[in-house]
Amino acid sequence: MSALLEIRELCAFYGRTQVLFGLDLDVAEGGVTTLLGANGAGKTTTLRAVSGMLHMRGDIRFAGERIAGRPIEDIVRLGIAHVPEGRGTFVRQTVEENLQIGAMARSGRAEIAADVERVYGYFPRLKERRHQQAGTLSGGEQQMLAVGRALMLRPRLMLLDEPSFGLAPLIVRELFEIFRVLNRDEKVSMLLVEQNASLALDFADEVYLIETGRLVMTGPAQELRRDETIRRSYLGY
Amino acid sequence: MELLLHQVLAGLATGGIYACLALAVVMIYQAIDHLNFAQGEMAMFSTFIAWQLIELGTPYWIAFVATIAISFVAGVLIERILFRPIHNAPVLSHIVVFIALFGILNSLAGFIWDFNVKNFPTPFGSRPLLGTGLISSHDAGMIGVTILLLVFLYVFFRHTRIGLAMRAAAANPQSARLSGIRVGWMIALGWGMAAAIGAVAGMLIAPVVFLEPNMMTSVLLYGFAAAVVGGLTSPGGAVIGGFAVGVIENLAGTFIPYVGRELKLTIALFLIVAVLLVKPSGLFGRRVVSRV
Known about the structure:
The structure holds two protein chains of two kinds.
Chain A: E1 5-14, E2 17-27, E3 32-36, H1 43-51, E4 56-62, E5 65-66, H2 72-77, E6 80-83, H3 95-102, H4 109-122, H5 124-128, H6 139-151, E7 157-161, H7 169-185, E8 189-193, H8 197-203, E9 206-211, E10 214-220, H9 221-226, H10 228-235
Parallel strand pairs in A: 3-8, 3-9, 6-7, 7-8
Antiparallel strand pairs in A: 1-2, 1-4, 4-5, 9-10
Helix pairs in contact in A: 3-6
Chain B: H1 2-32, H2 39-55, H3 60-83, H4 91-113, H5 137-159, H6 161-171, H7 173-178, H8 183-209, H9 216-230, H10 235-255, H11 264-278
C-alpha cells in the first residue's frame, strides 16, 4: 500500500537560495513520521512546501493525488491541517472565533458546533476562555488553540511544526498525550517537526534525519532510539 | 442655543456621509494596507449611474438598489483586474494605480455626462422635519440610512461566517489561508462592499453638494480625516470619526470668526495633522506592533 503523503525529490527555495536538495519522505496512513535535524536543516521548509507556501520543485502526493504547485487553500481543503511555527493565532478574535475560523473549509452548522465542543473536550482550558481575545492567552493555551483550530478541519494529516516550542514540560506532556489519542482514536496521520528529539522519537513510528536540506538517515523510531552513535552525533542526548 | 443644536444636527447628517466614506476607506485599508485615493471618484461614478437610471425613468429606490449592486460588482472587478496582479508590488505602484483610477473615473464621468452641475433627487424631500426647522427631512434621512447601513455591517461582520472569514483574512492572511479561507476572494469582496458603501454615500450627499465629476473631492478629504481621526485600523472608530468631523467642521464654520465656509476644508486637514501629531494610530486605532 502506498503512503498517505509521498514526497519525492523535493527541492525548495527562498528566493534564489536553495534550502532542500532532493528530499524523499513518506507518511503512512495512520502513522506518525517525525523529521529531525538541527536549526536551519530545512524542517519547517519541508512542512511549508507540503502546504504550498513556497516555491518548490519535485513531486508531492497526498492520497495519491498530486498537490505540488496548488494554492494553499486547495491543499488545506483536502484535509491537511498545518499547525504553523508561531501558532498563527488570530489575536484580536475570541477563542471560539478562532475555532470557527478553523472550520471555514467545511459546511454544516450543527457538525461544526459539535466539533467545537469536541475540541473543548480535549482542551477544557479553552472552554473556560472561549469568549476571551485569543491574544491574551498564554503560550501553552495558544498552542492548544492552534491544534484545536487544526482539528476543526477534521484533518486526515496534521503537519505539526515544533509544537513543544517554548512550553513548560508539563504542558508539553499534556499536548503529546492528546496527539497520541488523536492518532490512535481518530486515525489522524501526523508529520511532526521537533527540536526535542527524545520526545519525538518516543512518539513517532518513522524517523527522518536531515542535515542542511539533505536526508542523512531514515528508519523506524525504535531502531534509532537504540543506536547510540546516531543519538550522540545527531540528536545530542 | 438653537443655532448650536441646528449646526450639530446638520453636522451629524454630513458626518454620516463622511462616516460611510471613511468606512469604505478603512475596509480596503484593512484588506490591502493601502489608502484608496479613488474611493471618492468611485462613489461619484456610482452616483452618476444612479442619476442615469433615474433619468431613464427608474423609480428612485429601484435605482438606489440597482446602483448598489452595480457598484458592488464593479468594485470586485476593479480588484480582480487592476489590483490582484500587483498585490505584491511596492506601495508606490499601488498609489500610481489609485491615481490612475481617480483620473480615469473622473474624466470618464465628464466625457459621458459632461461637467455641468446636475440636480440629484432626494427621496426624503427637503422640507423641515416636523416643522421645527431644526433639521431638514433629507438630513434626517441621511442620518437614518447611515445608521441602518452601520447596523447591517455590524451584524454582517460579527454574526456571519463570511464576515468572520473576512476579518480573519484581514487580520492574518497567511494563517487564514492555512485555515482554507480564500483570502484573494475575501479581498475582492471587501472591495465590492467598499464600492457599494461609497455608492450609498454618493447618492445621499449628491442632493446637498450637487452632482458633477468633482463633487467628491472635498468629501473624500473629510472621509480621510474621519478615518485618520478614528484610526485606520478601526471601522467603529472611522464611523465615530466621521460624525465628529462633520460636527466639528460645522461648528467651527459657524462659531469661529474668519473660518466661515471658505476655510472649512482646512479644518479637515488641521484635524488630520493634529491627530497624527498627538495620537498617530487614531483615537480608536491600535498601534501595530510587530515582533522582529
